[in-house]
Design brief:
- The complex is a heterodimer of chains A (215) and B (98).
- Helix content of chain A is 75%, strand content 0%.
- Chain A is mainly alpha-helical and 215 residues long.
- The radius of gyration of chain A is 21 Å and the shape is globular.
- By secondary structure, chain B is an all-alpha fold.
- Chain B has three helices and no strands.
- Chain B starts with 9 loop residues before the first helix and ends in a 10-residue tail after the last helix.
- Classes of the chains: A mainly alpha (215), B mainly alpha (98).
- Chains A and B meet through helix 2, helix 4, helix 6 and helix 7 of A and helix 1, helix 2 and helix 3 of B.
């Protein structure tokens, strides 16, 4: 995102007063009242949500269709999962603070909180590696499940693996944004875009945590 | 970016964080209390939806965006999941791995 691009979007995202919804599509005004970068991020998030919706719908169907299903508390270390959830929720709050600071023009605070968020993401990933290692050690594989139905392990590794990959990508982007923030080359729009991505990662975890680990 | 929740106080985000933590604790308690399955599932789903609303509405500033964005995200995922669940997946039931 160039400075020039940001300068243009910052002056064109707000529709003039009195512009009707029909007139928004006749040019000169962004119809969704947001920059194209942000619109593209939202489109990406919607498609990504469809991906996880597919995963979770398939998981729900297979689980209901299976004659038996492992008791989660027998398989997972729930205190660890609870702490992972705590870390991810906290990182979402630090990210929201970073976006708020960026909106206020306090880029120093914004980059500091982006760095906190990245650290939270790293801690989450470390705990996920620990969780995966434990289950692999007990014999769980993508195609094999020591606690019963094979699909259990397959869904576990696919769903948490995809989510973990999102976290990893987020941590890399957050690190870059934090470094650019220290160098003074990141814009508030850049912080907001990475914030949207990170909150989405947290949002997906809310569903995984409930549907996979608790219910 | 204008009109996207830039005026929300920092304290609001941290109050939401506390609510999210409390909801998570409630969910863990429900899981451990051994409530009847139906009751537990309803409470867990309600807490999940509340958490999702707080994250989407306040952290992602969906409250300040055009409604069509929220509709694409929420209705899109719900309809896609329902379509898969009720119309596509039953066809594959016979070949499910046991």
């Amino acid at each position: 995102m160039t400075d020039a691009g940001v300068a243009v979007t910052a002056t064109t995202t707000k529709a003039p007063e009195g512009v009707s919804s029909g007139a928004r599509w006749q040019g000169g005004v962004p119809p969704f009242a947001m920059s194209w970068q942000k619109l593209m991020m939202w489109l990406f998030l919607v498609t990504d949500a469809l991906l996880f919706a597919g995963f979770l719908a398939a998981y729900g169907f297979v689980r209901l269709a299976s004659p038996s299903w492992p008791e989660q508390s027998d398989v997972f270390a729930m205190p660890l999962i609870a702490f992972m959830t705590f870390v991810l929720i906290t990182s979402s709050a630090t990210m929201a603070t970073a976006v708020g600071a960026a909106h206020r023009g306090d880029m120093k605070k914004a980059s500091r909180y982006v760095a906190f968020t990245a650290v939270g993401g790293l801690i989450f990933l470390g705990m996920q590696v620990n969780e995966w290692s434990g289950l692999l050690h007990e014999g769980a594989r993508l195609w094999e499940n020591p606690w019963g139905p094979r699909a259990f392990s397959a869904f576990f590794f696919m769903i948490t693996g995809f989510h973990g990959t999102h976290v990893l990508i987020g941590v890399v982007i957050l690190g870059i944004v934090a470094l650019k923030g220290r160098a003074g080359t990141v814009t508030s729009d850049g912080v907001e875009l990475v914030g949207l991505y990170w909150h989405f990662v947290d949002l997906v975890w809310v569903f995984i945590f409930t549907l996979f680990y608790l219910i | 970016m204008e009109g996207t929740g830039g005026n929300i106080a920092y304290g609001t985000y941290w109050r939401i964080w506390i609510v999210l933590l409390i909801l998570t604790l409630i969910m863990l308690a429900v899981e451990g209390l051994g409530l009847p399955t139906g009751v537990a599932v309803i409470v867990l789903l309600a807490a999940m939806m509340t958490k999702a609303t707080l994250i989407g509405g306040w952290f992602m500033h969906l409250r300040y965006e055009k409604l069509v964005i929220t509709l694409c995200l929420v209705l899109g995922t719900v309809l896609a999941a329902a379509f898969l669940f009720f119309l596509i997946m039953p066809d594959g039931r016979a070949s499910l791995p046991q």
